[in-house]
Automatic annotation (TrEMBL), chain A:
Keywords: Membrane, Transmembrane, Transmembrane helix. It comes from Microlunatus kandeliicorticis. This is ABC-2 type transport system permease protein. The chain crosses the membrane at residues 41-63, 75-96, 134-152, 158-180, 219-238, 250-270. It holds the Pfam family ABC2_membrane_6.
UniProtKB/TrEMBL annotation, chain B:
Pfam families: ABC2_membrane_6. InterPro entries: ABC-2_transporter-like. The chain crosses the membrane at residues 21-46, 58-79, 118-137, 143-165, 177-198, 236-254. Keywords: Membrane, Transmembrane, Transmembrane helix. This is ABC-2 type transport system permease protein.
Length: 282, 266
């Protein structure tokens, strides 16, 4: 025991520190650190909140010009917006940092992650966990509450289940897309904007009434990148509306199935990506 | 020759940007996907609104979307914090010590960047959009040279605003939050998400009280032929007025900020 600091970082020295505990400790430390700079946190949180507001303004402006957008009125479209946004914001909060893989590769920090006894994905998540991203979820939840108060849907078991479960399956689906994008980024470091097309594209498509999407997009953002499943289709079930072409209403119940397929796709993409990574001797 | 220095900086940045080939292809792809998403939403609103909203029919809506997707990279609708980062790290000191004006040198480089992005990213997107969906082109031949001038002014106004916002870094350690907030507001009010003409009246008033439509909506209006002849000249005149005013304002702030600057170590 010549060097006391060496003990801390070896696995043997802390056998009782399970992966979950380590994860919790790291997240807690990030949150504590961010809350220390109060003013900074407030402006960043406000920024995330305003992002939600800005995205909602689009729905509001569109429906200022037409009574119905893809068959939905303002309140119904706002329900779709809110459900999709809660899901996307939660996914972004947890795994949005995976976007930073190209920076980690360029800076060589990825190598040090790979040598540590914790899964790479968990380390990326904890390395830059940003509580401020919650601001967007808070805004979306606010919209959801207002919409529900004004819309007063029949509180059947089905509606209650869909309102609670949809953002959770949605978050899983969007998180899957983030991780899949991360895996692909190992192959195309300079071309990460490709993945924006289906990560942020799905985020944008998800908050629109799916019926407005032109046919190829409607199919792609349902059966490949299941964006419409994260809000529009469950909302149709809640509102008792029929689905447009290619999108039967019953797909609104298939959140778990799409979450599973996206999760499997993400796991596969991530594993391939990490295996492909060879490093540059950093 | 002083002007030569800036021209060299501009062409250096033009060439630097051209090395990221895969990024350019990726950008074109993503902008095209988003183009189709935006067209979907806007078409649905035009159809629901009885075939025309705010003076946009389907063909004009398509032109608006493709021109917007083509101009977003040159005008730069994203987070830009180059100056703020250098103020924070202290590297700005060596920039200020150079025998060249800081703001003018960044401006020259931004024009070089925008030029390359317009040619390699904007033009292909317009070609793709025109082929796949169709564009309504202006009938007046004056729309093209005037449109190019309007785009140049739009890029410059965007730069001066971004530079001005970066100067916040002289007063606070972390300007990032302000820059992000600025970006969101700019994205809406510039007409990047949706055309300013379809905003509710109150939001149009807010937008036109800001320089944002002059960076993005104005070039689209002039190039698409939505405003022609005298109206087009008036649009470009308003852009010139914004650019001049903002240049004076940022200059004053820059001089004050530089006086405040205190860097430790070195």
């Amino acid at each position: 025991m010549a060097d006391p600091t060496a003990r801390v970082i070896t696995r043997e020295a802390a056998p009782e520190l399970s992966g979950w505990t380590a994860f919790r400790l790291l997240i807690a430390s990030r949150v504590r650190a961010q809350l220390t700079y109060r003013a900074n946190f407030v402006i960043n949180f406000a920024g995330a909140f305003v992002l939600g507001l800005v995205e909602f303004s689009e729905i509001y402006i569109l429906l200022h010009n037409t009574p119905l957008l893809g068959g939905l009125d303002l309140l119904q479209a706002a329900l779709v917006f809110a459900l999709a946004n809660v899901g996307f914001a939660l996914a972004d909060l947890v795994v949005g940092q995976v976007d930073a893989i190209p920076q980690h590769v360029r800076m060589g920090t990825l190598e040090s992650f790979l040598t540590r006894p914790m899964p790479l994905l968990l380390q990326l998540v904890t390395a830059d966990f940003q509580l401020r991203r919650l601001g967007r979820a808070v805004f979306a939840l606010l919209v959801l509450v207002v919409v529900l108060v004004l819309l007063r849907p029949e509180p059947t078991a089905a509606t209650v289940y869909l309102l609670i479960a949809t953002p959770l399956w949605g978050a899983t689906i969007y998180a899957g897309l983030f991780v899949l994008a991360g895996g692909i980024q190992f192959f195309i470091i300079e071309g990460t904007e490709f993945t924006n097309a289906f990560v942020y594209g799905a985020g944008y498509a998800g908050q629109l009434p799916g019926s407005v999407l032109i046919a190829p997009l409607r199919v792609a953002f349902t059966f490949v990148f299941p964006a419409t499943v994260t809000a529009y289709l469950p909302a149709l079930v809640i509102l008792g509306l029929p689905g447009p072409g290619f999108l039967p209403q019953w797909l609104g119940w298939c959140g778990p199935l799409f979450a599973l397929t996206t999760g499997l796709l993400a796991a596969l993409g991530w594993r391939l990506g990490v295996r492909h990574y060879t490093g540059a001797g950093g | 020759m002083t002007v030569r220095r800036y021209l060299l900086l501009m062409s250096a940045e033009f060439r630097r940007q051209s090395t990221y080939r895969l990024a350019l292809v990726a950008g074109i792809f993503t902008n095209t996907v988003f183009g189709f998403l935006r067209i979907s939403a806007l078409f649905a609103a035009v159809r629901g609104g009885g075939g025309s909203i705010g003076g946009y029919d389907l063909a004009q809506a398509a032109s608006y979307v493709w021109l917007g997707q083509a101009f977003m990279a040159p005008v730069y609708m994203f987070l830009w914090q180059d100056v703020a980062v250098r103020v924070r790290s202290g590297e700005i000191v060596s920039d200020l010590a150079r025998p060249i004006d800081l703001q003018a040198s960044y401006w020259a480089r931004d024009l070089g960047r925008a030029g390359l992005q317009f040619l390699t990213r904007g033009v292909p997107i317009l070609a793709l959009g025109g082929l796949l969906v169709g564009l309504s082109l202006p009938t007046s031949p004056w729309s093209y040279p005037l449109g190019l001038l309007s785009l140049l002014l739009g890029i410059s106004i965007s730069f001066v605003c971004r530079f001005g916002m970066n100067l916040i870094a002289f007063w606070t350690v972390d300007a990032r939050g302000f820059l992000i907030l600025y970006g969101f507001v700019m994205n809406v009010l510039s007409g990047f998400y949706l055309p300013v003409a379809i905003f509710p009246d109150w939001l149009q008033v807010v937008a036109h009280a800001s320089p944002f439509p002059a960076m993005f909506q104005s070039p689209i209006d002039v190039v698409s032929g939505r405003v022609v002849d005298l109206a087009a000249l008036r649009t470009v005149g308003i852009q010139l007025a914004w650019l001049t005013g903002l240049l004076v304002l940022t200059r004053v702030v820059f001089v004050r900020g530089r006086r405040r600057l205190e860097v430790q170590g070195g």
